[in-house]
Amino acid sequence: MAKVMVYDPSANQIYVQYLQESDPMPYSTGRTLLVREFRGSSRSTVLWTTTTAMEAWNATRRSYGSGIPVGYAFKRIWEGGHGLQSQHYVGVSFDVGQRLTQTQRNRIWNTANNLGVWGYVEPLSLTPTWVHFDRRYARGACGGTAGFPTLREGAVGCYTLVLQDALNALGYSTRWLDGKFGNATRTALLQFQRASGLSADGICGCNTWKLIASEVVGIGQTPTVIDP
């Protein structure tokens, strides 16, 4: 059983479902993406994504016309396995086609790229044995579209879930893992900033994200992680 949290940017709301591993992901079409496929190697009891990522998946799968095997999708930031500010931790990123031929991967890449529904489709020259696409939905705090966006009190969504997850793993309790940047999350962030010698403003911007990510990615599940 997995707790699956789905952020809807249009409504600025997070919806929750409790699903079995063999159930389809919320908002995905038919059985084209099961919970266990989205989970991949993550051992978390809670997963998250966005409605826009699922809609992009649906469009790609429909246009491609046959199954797209997923090698890697979701990971929690303390599990690591990806870059310091990877969209996999946000639940909006897919690495697919590892078991397919290069011809098949080329066709998936062309499908995803030509549809224009993804925020980023990585050039094939950078992914020789897989296809990467993600539906990032905010501008990065350090400029451009890469990385995580600036977050402050009131922010809702999967990026806030990543921030809460990271702070909890590092021992700064946000009390909840709910994707809502409230007073408890701000207090935890202030504590981290003060302990790290950063400007304590309660805003997670470029420098704060860099330091948090460098300390938390891949450290494993600590006793303070919230894993409902």
Strand order of the largest sheet: 4-5-7-6
Radius of gyration (CA) equals 17 Å
Q: State the helicity in percent bands.
A: 25-40%
Distance between the termini: 11 Å
Question: Can you write the helix and strand succession as a string?
Answer: EEHEHEEHEEHHH
Largest sheet: 4 strands, antiparallel
Low-pLDDT sequence parts:
none
Number of strands: 7
Describe the structure.
The chain contains six helices and seven strands. Helix 2 (51-64) crosses helix 3 and helix 4 crosses helix 6. With 228 residues, the protein is of the alpha+beta class. It has a four-stranded antiparallel beta sheet with strand order 4-5-7-6. A three-stranded mixed beta sheet has the order 2-1-3. The relative contact order is 0.14. A hairpin with a 4-residue loop joins strand 1 (2-8) and strand 2.
Which descriptors apply to this entry?
228 residues; alpha+beta; three-stranded mixed β-sheet; four-stranded antiparallel β-sheet
Brief summary:
The protein is of the alpha+beta class and 228 residues long. It has helices at 35-39, 51-64, 102-115, 158-169, 183-196, 206-216; strands at residues 2-8, 13-19, 46-50, 70-72, 93-96, 120-121, 131-134. The longest helix is centred in the first third of the chain and has 14 residues, at 51-64.
Ordered list of secondary-structure elements with their pairings:
Elements: E1 2-8, E2 13-19, H1 35-39, E3 46-50, H2 51-64, E4 70-72, E5 93-96, H3 102-115, E6 120-121, E7 131-134, H4 158-169, H5 183-196, H6 206-216
Parallel strand pairs: 1-3
Antiparallel strand pairs: 1-2, 4-5, 5-7, 6-7
Helix pairs in contact: 2-3, 4-6
